[in-house]
Amino acid sequence: MTRSAPRPTHSVAALRLRLVVTGFALLGLTGTLVLDAPPASAATYPSWDDVLAARGQEAAKNNQISDIEGLIGRLGTEADTAAAEAEARGNEYGDAQRKAQRAAEKEQALRTDAEEHAKVAEESAAQAGQFAAQMARSGGADVTTSVLAGGDDTRDLLYDLGALSKLSEQAERVETVATTDAAVARALSSQADRAAEALAELAKAAEERMAAAQAASDRAQAAYDEQQDNRARLEAQLATLKSGRVRTEAEFAKGEAERKAAAERAAREAAEAAARAAAARAASGGSGGGGGGGGSVGSGSGTGWVRPAGGRITSSYGTRVHPITGATSFHDGIDLGSACSSAIVAASAGTVEYVGWYSGYGNYVRINHGNGVKSAYGHIVNGGFRVTKGQQVAAGTLVALVGSTGNSTGCHLHYETHVGGGTTNPVSFMAARGVGF
Known about the structure:
The protein is elongated. By secondary structure, it is of the alpha+beta class. Strands 1, 4, 5, 6, 7, 8, 9, 10, 11 and 12 form a ten-stranded antiparallel β-sheet that branches. It has helices at residues 10-21, 48-54, 58-137, 140-149, 154-242, 249-283, 426-431; strands spanning 313-315, 318-321, 328-331, 334-336, 343-345, 350-357, 363-370, 373-385, 392-393, 398-402, 413-419, 422-424. Helix content is 55%, strand content 14%. The relative contact order is 0.14. The longest helix has 89 residues, at 154-242.
């Protein structure tokens, strides 16, 4: 994202940083990080006793104010720098992963075409064999001998010979088709093998980008944690020095505990509401999402798959004109026009393998359902992650809240389904599992 020169306010920086850095872990990759930098020297933070002692001495107070302001600025600068690096690495990973997806789809298409041609070749060869058997049953050699010898039945025999000739021609044509399709199948298989080699290279490049993104995420998370652990206290200390009101450590600790408890309570209530809704649907046997309508989040048909969010489809899978860039590009999923901060639930049971920034999709979650099947959820609101990498989820588990991060013109869920490394149309994929949109 574009960053202005002034440092963002604490609330904006914290929201953005929380979403940018919460994750980037994918496929369990760890690894040595070529981008690792030496850790910055640990800062020394003033205690409340230091602050209270400095209040009565003007010079000491001014020095303490200067030190605290410097520490707050350093926290913000380091956090923003780390977040920007994590976002950049996430963008690079997104680009590399899309190339690998396109290569996987190309290989799949070539394999499918090769199998179809091989099937046609096999069927044609079988048909040619049937023609040969029919000719043998008709006694082709005896017919020819009888015609050459003449006789009363010569006219009928000539008719039979013509029929056999036609059978022979048909057999030759079918055999030619079989030979041609077999050759095409072999050629397509060779192309698929070459595509697989290219895919391996692209997948390797994507893995390297993932490792870099993981490293950047770790650094950003560390910077964010330090900021969260210290900034609020430093600002409270600064207010004590600058104002006439003395705020004690006990007061600050009480306020922080109340704030954290409120946030945890809100998250817990949202998760419990989603769980109750999923349990109610399971008890009633579930319900279809309806074809093309704005079905409810979590609706399903008892197949183990549910609708990931509410709202109607506002953009379909496939080639489209991008609403922001104006360029023609491939849309790897569908967009559901869900309300801002509404629930996004796991479409099926699986393991969360990625939580973090992902190129133009902004804040993004991907879930691995096994057997080469995955689902992904993009444009999540800042502060909207409700799962972490490695977490096991069930169908209907609250994973995130709808937003408009990344390249987005308004709140919606970008929903993807992946099969065998490439993307597939979520509408037909989900329809096959009893879930409609």
